[in-house]
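In response to reviewer comment 3 from the previous cycle, which asked for concrete evidence that the modeling workflow produces usable outputs, we include below a single protein chain processed end to end. The sequence was submitted unchanged, and the resulting structure tokens are shown without manual editing.
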Amino acid sequence: MRMLSALLLCLLAVSVSPVSAQSANAPPAVSQVTTNGAVVSSTRTTLVVRTDAGDYKLFELNALTTRPELIPIGATVSVSTSAADTADAPVAAFVRVTAQPQQALQPKPTDEPVPAQVKQLEESIKRQTARYRLGVRSGMALDPELIMIGAQGLLGPFFSENVWARPNLELGFGEVTDLIALNFEGVFRMPVTERGGRWSMFFGAGPAINFVKLGFARDSDNVEEEDFEYDEFNMEVGLNLLAGVQSRGGLFLELKSTVYAEPGMRFVFGYSF
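The workflow returned the following structure tokens.
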């Protein structure tokens, strides 16, 4: 189990280093693309614009976007994005309101509705960037063998758009061992994948407080049966190391290793609402 934990650490170091080097060697300035149109939808993290040609464009807004405090529906805006950002929902670098809402600029009931694909991607980005999210998780643990169920929260972001706190509670049930695990983990979404992409990769770590209960029985034809039961849970403090992938819809798959405490390795799948 120590070797598996060391392997997770190595994977984390190898994955982060290229991203950091790429950021350090990035050119100071990049060309930009400007899109003009009327605002159809505006939230804290998304902006949908209907261009003069009748196309609907979705943009992601983050902490680095320069924008007005209020972007009214129906207003005409000019949105600048990096020419290198070819995602379905590029990140807006600048948003400037060029005209206040007027009846002529607002979408009419007879206009073509917003495409379903744009709506789904907008909802996906809003879900992923929500400050508070809840989820459920399940899986299996090795050494000892356990069936795991639990719940989790997702809080953030902190420090950057990709860092989140993810406290979670896990209950494990096995033939020999029962487990209550309190995990105080932080996760980092790797920026090598788009936020609006179908799948994104993440790494994480954090302290774990595990309460373990052991119980077993001996059966013998020649020896009087003797039962052993440890009624009280023993507390163990360890460190969780994890890596996984999460879909745009909320489904995630995760491999977690715990050092200095049990269980040593577990496979988890779950869903974040």
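Residues 187 and 204 are 4 Å apart (CA to CA). We consider this sufficient to address the reviewer's concern, and the full set will be provided in the supplementary archive.
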